[in-house]
What does this fold into?
Amino acid sequence: MRTLIAALLLPGAQGFYLPGVNPYSFSEGEGVKLKVNKMTSQKTLLPVDYYRLPFCQPEGGPKMDHENLGEFLAGDRIESSPYRINMKVDMFCEQLCITNLGRGEQKGVSPNKMVRAIRKNYHNNWIVDNIPAASKVEDEATVTTRYWQGFPVGFIASDTMKAYVHNHVNIEIQYHSVETEPDKARVVRFTIEPFSIKHDFEASADDDDDAEEGTVKPYKVADIQNPIESCNPKISKKEHTRYEMVYARGREPQPASGRVLFTYDVTWTENKALHWASRWDVYLSMDNAIPAKVHWLSIANSLVIVIVLSAMIAAILVRNLRRDFNRYNRLATDEEKAEDMEEFGWKLVHADVFRPPSFSPLLMSVCCGTGAQLLCMAILTILFSAMGFLSPSNRGALIMAQLLLYVLMGSVAGYVTSRLYKTFKGKSWQKATACVAFGFPGITFALFLVMNVVALSQGSSDAVPPLTMFILLFLWFGISTPLVFFGAYFGYKQEAIEFPVNTSSIPRQIPDQPWFMGLPFTLAVGGILPFGACFVELYFILASVWMDQYYYVFAFLLLVFAILVITAAEITVLFNYFQLCGENYHWWWRSFSTGGSTGLYVFLYSFVYFKQLEANSLATYVLYFGYMGLASLGLFLMTGFVGVTTCLIFNKTIFGSIKID
It folds into this structure.
């Protein structure tokens, strides 16, 4: 980011990012590695390893890339591939291998792995020089290129409803010559155009005709009996595979069964306008599929909500508080004393307003401590992302940043919990500290274990290896827990929070409250305004999580997150004032629930969003609603802490501004 102000004003600081790797320059003819990543599906939400299907494998078997913790947690499994690509060397219908996809589709017979993957709408995700493959789709009239979600494994024919596999790909790579090294070039764009071509072929003599399903004979050369123009060795002038060749009269697609020949073209094109530093721009903007105007309108909508809410608070609170201060602080006349005018309003609860919560002060302290930890983690993550430090070219960086910042913010959780618990005159400080150290992380880890079992049962790459699980446990018990106790030590050393008024020994009786001050109404109204301020950005964030789209407008997100926090704080203070005017001093839990009710709306919205995913399996339901429930709980704790903190400051301010007899 050029400057922090620029990042806040520009849409995601487009055209600028801090790369995760240094640029690599290729010499002409030098090998360029094509790597394969997990296959993803919007129907199952469970990524699977590429070589779980009987695709062609490299000699010696696929080799796993060195992956970081974030990549493992995201389900990435980057491996080598058998595709042979050399810089600036075009290839025409290069044969890869022959593989047996298994039995054909028949009624009453279980389909093979490839057919099941195609029917579940799985997509391949390939990588060249650390940039993902864009997908090109062509028909008679249009050519569409999409820069997210990879390209489909195959397709279902609309007439026969049978599955066909994409056994040919056009690999189109653009390069930019290096100014300082004219004989070298850098990869700046990578596009895949998949085709399904039924090759009638005769394998070479050493081919195993009795190959079983899933077996692969790498680098097989076959004689194609019905070659298209690009695959015909008798044609002297070579041409790359085109749409017209594949869909010419008499040509048929390749069914996803039996013995299949896999082929590919490689096309190199120089792009003088696109530089290496800007090659990710089209991915981050998704080729302007979502214009920046949408985000600006979202922010304008959020600002309108904030302005209206602020005006309401100014009209109600400021005017009423000024009147209250004048009434409470002026000297009573002899006539008023004689009439012994009865006081009313929030001043009556001055001896009870700072009484500890009636229900579990320990739980209140733990929830606030966890909310403070999550809030600090969220602010720092969004801030670093808006500044450009978390580049998408460094896969897994965002997840790692969130995880490490959460662990390091354990000291904040310990400090806030201990300070509040001491203010509530709690005695079980070891129990409170242990609860904040193991409470929310324990819930998260238990849910994570359940999701891991579900992923294992489905054979998904989302399943975390044992070593990664050990690293997570080390971060929890070895770093986060000691930091929680470290923060709690300093919190207990501090003096308790001082209040401007004393608390009586006998609680005051609370009069009957009107219906609109009940918990259901405050939860409903308290959450809808903050949710309305952020739901547009929430839609795009969910699309990036569940639909494999890119989200990199963190500057917009920083503004929306600030608006969310301000809105939650304002609506909580407003309800807190009404509650105190009704002589109800049980505001601790009410302010926490009112502020946190945004999380309830997010969870309810997840049911609406789920309809877009076309999911139909129990594992998908468990995965989606498990993680959305956890995210909503985190948001509930975060905005709940904002509500409690704001109301505590507000109450201290107004009760410190009046004279108490």
User: Anything to note?
Assistant: Residues 1-20, 207-211, 214-218, 336-342 have pLDDT under 50 and may be disordered. The first strand starts at residue 26 and ends at 27. The radius of gyration is 31 Å. The chain is about 45% helix and 15% strand.
